[in-house]
Specification:
single chain; 180 residues; mainly alpha; Methane Monooxygenase Hydroxylase, Chain G, domain 1; 7 helices; Gemin2/Brr1; Protein Gemin2
Length: 180
Amino acid sequence: MELLSDLIADALEWQKKVKRNFTKMRKGLEKIRKSKTTWPCLLPKEDMAEEDLELWLRYLRGNKCSFHHLFGMTDDQRELALEVLIYKVMDQLPPGQSIDKHTANWIYGILACIEFPLHLYLCVILRDLCKSADEVRSHLDDLPENEIVEAGTPLNIISILVTQYFDQSNVVPLGYSFPG
């Protein structure tokens, strides 16, 4: 049986690895973004209305996340896409289900494109994302342990990035440790 200190050390090392990999990816994306002065917008309509959340949802579900899609969006459009993923996908999941790989890739990709400094509304979106990930994760307890790990890993990655990389640490319940 592993000691608690070993489990904590493993979890902390996993968190550091998540942040290192994310940092490397952001640097790589920044090089790609700078290699071209403009990126074509791949949205069905360049001015997709904020209120047309169903169109946004169809777009996000119907397209794989790629740097071409991400760089063709404005910061506001990426924020709106993140909101759609939170409120129309994550918050609608039935208990015991987690986000799929497609959704996780979009969230990770959008997070990788966020530029500092963060503005107030983006902080609100990030905090809502973390809260939503925590809520989805809280309903996975009835699954077998191997399924909890598989379903919970993308949610844990989201929470680590929001709380530690984007410095929104006060959104996580006190004493919560992200399993690795």
